[in-house]
Amino acid sequence: xxxxxxxxxxxxxxxxxxxxxxxxxxxxxxxxxxxxxxxxxxxxxxxxxxxxxxxxxxxxxxxxxxxxxxxxxxxxxxxxxx
Length: 82
Ligand SMILES: [Zn+2]
Fold this sequence. Notes:
alpha+beta, 3-stranded mixed beta sheet, two-stranded antiparallel sheet, 1 helix, binds zinc ion
């Protein structure tokens, strides 16, 4: 099975780009949104990095606020006044 593989460079693991099931659980995209037709070279397989760049499920990554910048600013001000 062929296809176009997109995967992060210098990742912690070696991605399976031979068409098998990769450990990272890649996303398969069969239809080209630009043309509405299937990719002529096979599906585009988008791999996910396993070093935390795209995943924030890990509890030790919650320190980085990504939801609302406003609430973070307010929190900072409160801490400063006390
Ligand atoms: Zn992968």
